[in-house]
Design brief:
It is built from 6 helices and 17 strands. By secondary structure, the chain is an alpha+beta fold.
Length: 318
């Protein structure tokens, strides 16, 4: 049902992972000899490629840390192809930003996303994913995430809406979302939207190679709660790039020094979902997709896709 709760090894029904990726997974767990070709597919000798990386991973294993599997570490070639997908994703959200306004339906947003994605040679990743019926998620006011676009849902002055766009280009995935304030909104809603966006900047200060994901999660949570808001517990971010949803699961109620080590080559989303009221949420029983706040309070979310690099991080999609 909720694709951001349990997403290990899931693949969009419309686009399978390239066959060479599955082949690579079967062989990459073997440790090469120092003069053998590296497991990453670079065709470079292991000792000059990922030998030091694997030594670092082993050192974290010895102290009981959670480390990434090799199959979620992206190669330079994969990263470039994922970036091409992200270019489409960003362009589609830019189009939405230019056209969204009061009086349009969320079904119109869905059509924009489909048309703008397809004309760039890509596929909207949500369409058909585990039965999801539309090309984008549109979550208005008290909808936390996974809102299904509808001709009956008309944006009104004062609404806030999250538009969550995911793209497949040549088998590679990108994912990001933005909040939009429709016309003049209540200052309290504007503060909620701005606070969530700022929380990502706060979290990014803790995104660094060989740090813990929990460092970022706690930084975001501490900032959000200091502003009087609550962070949704059950739904988080995820790895992305070769599949729609990969490991790791990314929590924003985590603690410093916990969760997976952020190793260079990892790629994941940062997307805290923040409520003005209590953190409790429920799933719409009729569509089995849309998540709402239990108390009817407004909710906001921003999402970016980041790559861990040797020097820090790179924002791939936003």
């Amino acid at each position: 049902m909720n694709w951001k709760r349990n997403r290990r090894n899931e693949v969009n029904a419309f686009e399978s992972v390239p066959a060479y990726i599955n082949t690579r997974r079967k062989t990459m767990d073997k440790k090469p000899g120092r003069n053998d070709v590296c497991w990453c597919g670079s065709n470079v000798k292991y000792k000059k490629c990922h030998a030091a990386f694997d030594d670092k991973i082993d050192s974290f294993k010895r102290i009981g840390a959670t480390v990434p599997r090799r199959d979620i570490i992206k190669t330079p070639e994969q990263i470039e192809l994922i970036k091409k997908s992200a270019e489409v994703n960003i362009a589609v959200l830019d189009y939405v930003a230019e056209h969204i306004k009061a009086g349009i339906s969320t079904a119109e947003i869905d059509k924009w996303v489909y048309d703008e994605t397809v004309k760039r040679g890509a596929i909207p990743a949500p369409l058909g994913y585990q039965g999801f019926p539309k090309s984008v998620c549109t979550s208005v006011n008290d909808a936390v995430c996974h809102g299904i676009p509808s001709e009956d849902e008309i944006l009104e002055e004062g609404d806030i809406i999250n538009v969550d766009c995911s793209t497949i280009l040549n088998g590679y995935y990108s994912d990001s979302s933005r909040m939009f304030c429709i016309g003049e909104v209540d200052p309290r809603l504007k503060d909620l939207v701005d606070t969530v966006k700022e929380s990502i900047e706060i979290g990014l200060k803790e995104v660094k190679p060989w740090g813990y994901l929990g460092d970022m999660g706690q930084a975001i949570n501490d900032f959000i709660t200091s502003r009087g808001y609550t962070v949704v517990r059950e739904i988080g971010g995820h790895g992305v790039g070769l599949e729609f949803h990969e490991d790791p699961w990314v929590s924003y109620v985590s603690k410093k020094g916990t969760e997976m080590i952020m190793a260079p080559g990892m790629m994941f989303t940062i997307e805290p979902m923040v409520n003005m009221g209590k953190a409790d949420v429920f799933v719409d029983e009729e569509n089995d997709w849309t998540v709402y706040t239990e108390d009817g309070s407004p909710s906001a979310q921003w999402e970016i896709q980041v790559l861990i690099t040797e020097a820090g991080y790179e924002i791939i999609s936003y």
